[in-house]
Amino acid sequence: MAKKKRLLWQLFPSYLLITLISLLIVTWYASRSLKHFFLEQTASDLEVRAHLLEKQILEYLNPLDAESADLLCKETGKRASTRITIILPSGEVIGDSEENPANMDTHIDRPEVIQALSGRLGTSIRYSRTLEKNMMYVGVPIKNNSQILAVVRTSIPVSAIDEALKSIQNKILIGGLIIAAIAAILSLLISRNITRPIELIKKWAESIAQGEFQSRPPLDGSEEISGLSQAMNQMAIQLRDRIDTIMRQRNEIEAMFSSMIEGVIAVDTEEHIISMNQAAAKMFACNPSEVQGRSIQEVIRNTIMHQFVKDALSSQEPVEKDINLYSDGERILNTHGTVLRDANMGRIGALIVFNDVTRLRRLENIRRDFVANVSHEIKTPITAIKGFVETLRYGEVKNPEEAKRFLNIVGKHVDRLEAIIEDLLTLSKIEQDTEREETVLTEGRIKDVLQIAIQLCVTKATAKNIQIRLSCKQAITAKINSALIEQAVINLLDNAIKYSDAHSVVQVRARQTERETIIGVHDQGCGIDKEHLPRIFERFYRVDKARSRKMGGTGLGLAIVKHITQAHAGRVSIESTPGKGSIFEIHLPRA
Ligand code: ADP
After folding, report:
1. Residue 510 Cα, ligand 1 centroid: separation in angstroms?
2. What residues contact 425, with CB distance under 8 A and at least 6 apart?
3. What pLDDT shows up at residue 448?
4. Domain limits, the chain
5. Ligand 1 test: best mutation among 423, 549, 558, 565, most atoms within 8 Å of CB?
6. Which fold would CATH assign to domain 260-356?
7. CATH of domain 361-425
8. Is the dihedral of CA 224, 228, 234, 237 positive or negative?
9. Which residue among 495, 541, 586 has the greatest number of ligand 1 atoms within 8 angstroms of its CB, and so is best to mutate?
10. Ligand 1 pocket: which of 530, 542, 573, 585 to mutate (most atoms <8 Å of CB)?
11. Is 538 in the pocket of ligand 1 (CB under 6 A)?
12. Is residue 499 in contact with ligand 1, taking CB distance under 6 Å?
């Protein structure tokens, strides 16, 4: 685009041009009128001079006294600085102020003479061959009783008129130039006066465009300009209000968007990301400010997800699917997709919402597994009991010794069932209490609790020749539910005895750090392989099923320990080396 001229440089030259043209026309007209006036004035002057001589000349004509007439011409002409000529109707010159009439040819053909001879006033401006310059001639008829006796001609050089005119024209020119200069300065001032407020408004509008809404528009200037200022000010106020509203709404939406736990991604119809919230960015390990405008395929490397986005874009109905992600561990995202529409209901993309349901699904799985496990655990003893009871009922066992042995087996299975049910009830009670926050915690001495637990396990230990050693300072206290902690330590001790060889040592140690009270049970038993450690605290999880059952284990001991610790807002840890032994620790937080 060609550079636009400033308004000042459009107004000022126009003003100047108009002024100069008017000035030229006025000057031209004035000097023309002046010249005209001058010539008329001179002609009437010459006529008056001729009339003054009329009477005297008449005297020399009747009778004709050419010599005196010539003398009159020469004397008067000299005094009046005027050429005076007297011409007879025949054209003969009888007197002339400048020349000897004898040397002058006939003047019958001179226009002023011709006009005067017809009885009128004759005037003519032309070149005089006699004087060799431009002259103005006026011829006046001299009559005697309406008979023209001669013509008296007065004349002066036109150069005199021209000089007078020139000096006046010079003055007009100087005046004109002064007026033009003043007009130029005035038009510059007027142009600036008109353009200044417009420029101020322009600058103000530019500042508005840059978002500076604080300044006020210039309100001086003409009615139109101040009207324009006010209208623009109104516009700016409305604009600021609208921008404020839009910004506020945007901030609110952004705040909502980024504080959502659900991941949200909006894509356009080309599958390019319009926006992504913090939660989604965290799920897919990317930066939300960098992904805008990039394709979903580029940002999320998961083909099922790509297909899901395609489905969401093409489907009329909302779509839903659980999608598994495999970056640092498996995660399950429950994903919803709906079409995004603009104000005219036109499709502009799709909104994908992700809900991390990994924990939920895992819990569902655990619950499902738990039901299956419980059923399985209970089914084995019940099947056995049923078998033996049937055998006894139909009297197939004749020998009372055998019957006693059968009843003993049935009794063992019943014990096992009872143990399972008891452990399940304990677990469920701990869980319920934890959920309802009904677990009562009081400040208690840890050593006392450990001593009771050890006492309760000593018989089992002695039977296997296992020695239990306690190492706990008297001063160690913690906020605990003594019965629960006792139960947990008993479970750990029970395991330690079960999975240790005879003649080994089991140590119960308690210590305190700045943040925790730690109770540990160390054994020198078979230890646990690394692969089992993450699942060891799950219900019914056993490393060696047959061995555990044989030992009368329910597979719930460690799960109970975990839940008791959780009821104390603590955690359990395990370190184990197969063949060397294990260390189970209960970490209780210090207030
Ligand atoms: P169980 O009643 O079978 O002992 P637990 O929940 O107490 O059930 O323990 C789960 C499994 O962890 C056991 O089956 C056993 O394989 C393993 N385990 C527990 N404690 C020890 C230990 N001190 N040494 C070796 N293995 C252990």
Report:
1. 21
2. none
3. 95
4. 9-164, 213-254, 260-356, 361-425, 442-589
5. 558
6. Beta-Lactamase (3.30.450)
7. 1.10.287.130
8. negative
9. 495
10. 542
11. no
12. yes
Nearest to 332 by CA among 378, 364, 310: 364
Q: Give yes or no for residue 500 CB within 6 A of ligand 1.
A: no
pLDDT-derived band at 219 (thresholds 50, 70, 90) equals low
Domains 9-164 and 260-356 share a fold: yes
The span from the CA of 453 to the CA of 472, in Å, is: 13
Pick the CATH number of 442-589 from 3.40.30.10, 3.40.50.150, 2.60.120.280, 3.30.565.10: 3.30.565.10
Are 511 and 578 a contacting pair, CB within 8 Å?
A: no
Question: Measured from the CB, is residue 526 less than 6 Å from ligand 1?
Answer: yes
Report whether residue 553 contacts ligand 1, using a CB cutoff of 6 Å.
yes
Residue-wise pLDDT tens digits, 422-435: 999 999 999 898 88
Closest C-alpha to ligand 1, atom 25: 527
Euclidean distance between the first and final Cα of the chain, in Å?
76
Q: Which residue has the higher pLDDT, 254 or 350?
A: 350
CA–centroid distance, 123 to ligand 1, in Å, is: 151
Report the C-alpha gap between 398 and 401 in whole angstroms.
9
Minimum CA distance residue for ligand 1 atom 8: 555
Residue holding tokens 């219900």? 539
CB of 558 closer than 6 A to ligand 1? yes
What is the DSSP track for 505-555?
EEEEEEEE-SSEEEEEEE--S----GGGGGGTTSTT--SSHHHHHHTT--S
401: part of which helix (H) or strand (E)? helix 400-436
User: How many Cβ atoms are within 10 Å of 385's Cβ, its own excluded?
Assistant: 18
Q: Which of 506, 471, 501 is nearest to 583 (CA)?
A: 506
- Rounded to whole angstroms, how far apart are CA atoms 547 and 526? 12
For ligand 1, whether the C-beta of 520 sits within 6 Å is no
Q: Is the CB of 460 inside a 6 Å radius of any atom of ligand 1?
A: no
CB of 350 closer than 6 A to ligand 1? no
Q: Is ligand 1 within 6 A of the CB of residue 16?
A: no
Residue 280 zone, left/alpha/beta (φ > 0; ψ -120 to 50; rest): alpha
221 confidence band (pLDDT: 50, 70, 90):
low
CATH of domain 9-164: 3.30.450.20
